[in-house]
Amino acid sequence: xxxxxxxxxxxxxxxxxxxxxxxxxxxxxxxxxxxxxxxxxxxxxxxxxxxxxxxxxxxxxxxxxxxxxxxxxxxxxxxxxxxxxxxxxxxxxxxxxxxxxxxxxxxxxxxxxxxxxxxxxxxxxxxxxxxxxxxxxxxxxxxxxxxxxxxxxxxxxxxxxxxxxxxxxxxxxxxxxxxxxxxxx
Length: 185
What we know:
Elements: H1 2-6, H2 11-16, E1 21-22, E2 27-28, H3 34-60, E3 64-67, E4 72-76, E5 80-85, E6 88-89, E7 95-97, H4 104-111, H5 115-126, H6 130-184
């Protein structure tokens, strides 16, 4: 602290540059490059956006189920089912409900979905026990989303904090160089 006041440095700036300041010296431990700071900010923001995307796709959407035989994904909310492509449900896909499943041959004809998929989806929509299965799938997807989001958020926040400290260290280095130049004169 005496070193910072003796060199007329902002204590907030010294605090933000904490890991880049060697207080035994006292001096700076290298000078972080602006390119690394920019890359860390970009990576932190991308990790944060990835976390938001994971939460949106796995938690806010209805549970996604895959019919293994045809490798097709469907979003089921317990009342309706519709095809899902790359984890996004599209409005132009055909929606199935327990009422439309009465005539399965007509549903296959109208939707163009494979007959096996219609059988699996209609069995899920018409069975009472399927509600518990769908709830278990949704809870499982929420757990996966949480497990994916935690490291994304931690790594993203760590990168952003490192970039904040590195930018402060660059400012501190500039202030120390100006102070050294003014003391020589």
